[in-house]
Amino acid sequence: MDYVFKVFPTRMKTVIQSYLENGGNLFVSGAYIGSDMFLGKTKDSDDYKFCTEILKYKLASDHAVITGNTKFITGEFYRSVRY
Q1: H helix intervals, the chain
Q2: What's the domain range around 73?
Q3: Over the chain (83 residues), what is each successive 10-residue block's mean pLDDT?
Q4: What is the longest distance spanned by two Cα atoms in the chain?
Q5: How far apart are CA 33 and CA 62, in angstroms?
Q6: In whole angstroms, what is the distance from residue 53 CA to residue 68 CA?
Q7: Among 18, 43, 52, 81, which one is most buried in terms of CB atoms within 10 A?
Q8: In a domain? residue 2
């Protein structure tokens, strides 16, 4: 039997949906939260619908950057940050 990891198994989707519909708030973070729910799926798949209709997010890209170039902030912003 092959093990298949699901970001949001069916039961978890049901619990999350109920929680959100009753006024709850949810912050979701993770390396594959977007791509695993969208890539290779059709717009009528359960995962796609759960993300777009319940969690209210969609996949913008399956990579962080194309060029490898980065931008950074200097100045006042860093002077106000306390660690």
Answers
A1: 10-21, 35-38, 46-49, 76-80
A2: 10-80
A3: 76 96 92 86 94 92 73 67 60
A4: 56
A5: 11
A6: 32
A7: 52
A8: no
